[in-house]
Amino acid sequence: MVFNWSSHGNLSNSSVGNIPHYDPMRLRSFVTFNLYVGALTVVLSFIFNFYIILAFVRRPRLITSFTIQILNFVIIEFVTLIIEGPLNIATFLNPRLFTLKPFCAIYKFGAWTFPSLALLQQMAIGLDRWLALLAPVWYRQKTVAFGVKVTVGLCGSYFLLYLPLFIADVIHTKTVTVGARCDIHRVFVSYQIVVRMITYYLPLFFTYVSYPILLGMIRCRQRRIASSANTRTDKTSMFVTGKRADVDADLELSVTAVRAQTSRKAADRANARRSGNLSMWMMLVQIVCSAPLTVTYTLIQYHPNEAQIPYLHDFNSFSIMLTSLNMVVDPLIYWIFFRDLREETIRLARCRCFAS
């Protein structure tokens, strides 16, 4: 989930006007604390994601048919930080910017686009894991270009659905009144729900429901593979160490070839296990960090009496801080499971530190 302050973007109503619905915060110190923690995590995630992208650029061999999906996700998060970061800082310092129609339109576009693109890309990572499990022969032949096409296709599909809504809303909006939320569209309500369901709630539902099932299937398969590998090892040992005094050179070469093939398969299984574990941890962290925001933001946007729900907006500020923390944890997960990526990132950091 992408960090986004749109859920409580118009935070400082006291400096704009006396509108109770516009300033629903009750725990002001708690909200301010979440703001500062969120800002710190955004800075850290910007640095971490920058080094990860630079590591992939410096070492193209790190880009495989699976890691291209991770790289695409990191790029989406990095672009989000570049665009949304300055916008959020500007609106925090000057809430009156929300009354400017161009600024409100840009803010609305980012509030809808970047979280949806991130969720769609995470769904692509999940589908990649399902393909690896259900179609292993085809998956081994999958190329990096396929991963790029999947991401481009998802992004293109999103803009094909969302741009008509966004353009119509911009044309319909003549002025932005004080207290109006800049992240809510006010035209084509039925179509708006369709777009939201397809581009946001559907990939979110896929993550919440699909990954526990996928995790269980992967664990069962790993235990089955480990058991069969031990059986094959025992048979190979019996074949090599048996009472065969007339073993010739050709047989020794064949045994060596079998062992080499076994080692390659073991390495492939280890890579698949690391990729699976990485995906599982990514989705687990995402579920924990995004579920509170999904609940609170849905209530804020669609509940008719959301202003009367006590502490809803305060808890929403905490849930937004969790999503920013998610963007810091994701790079740490990459470094834990990808040793080559970790080593290249450390090398880049040391070079830049010594250069300075």
Task: Give an overview of the whole structure.
With 356 residues, this protein is mainly alpha-helical. Helices cover 78% and strands 0% of the residues. The chain has nine helices and no strands. The protein has helices at residues 28-58, 67-93, 101-134, 136-140, 144-172, 189-241, 249-302, 312-337, 339-355. Helix 2 (67-93) packs antiparallel against helix 3 and helix 8 crosses helix 9 (339-355). The protein is globular. Residues 1-23 have low confidence and may be disordered.
Counting helices, strands and paired strands, the structural category is mainly alpha
For the largest beta-sheet, the strand count, sense and barrel status come to:
none
Amino- and carboxy-terminal Cα gap: 34 Å
The whole-number mean of residue pLDDT values reads 75
Question: Helical proportion?
Answer: over 70%
Question: Compute the gyration radius: what is it?
Answer: 25 Å
Question: DSSP helix count?
Answer: 9
